[in-house]
Design a protein that fits this description.
Largest sheet: 3 strands, antiparallel
Distance between the termini: 26 Å
Number of helices: 0
Structural class: mainly beta
Shape: globular
Strand order of the largest sheet: 5-6-7
Order of helices and strands: EEEEEEE
């Protein structure tokens, strides 16, 4: 994936598009799936209610 898939520039600020893993910390993004978000490093999973 490209860097532009993770970050967006709004004015003078850099905005993250995805969440970071709460266990691994900053720099490790959660993968976006249809029904969940998951970390490929530690296996942390959040289910999305839609």
């Amino acid at each position: 994936m490209r860097v532009s898939d993770y970050y967006e520039i709004k004015g003078d600020k850099l905005v993250r598009k995805r969440q970071w893993c709460p266990r691994c910390g900053e720099g490790i993004f959660l993968a976006e799936h249809k029904d969940r978000r998951s970390c490929g490093r530690c296996g942390y999973t959040e289910f999305i209610k839609r």
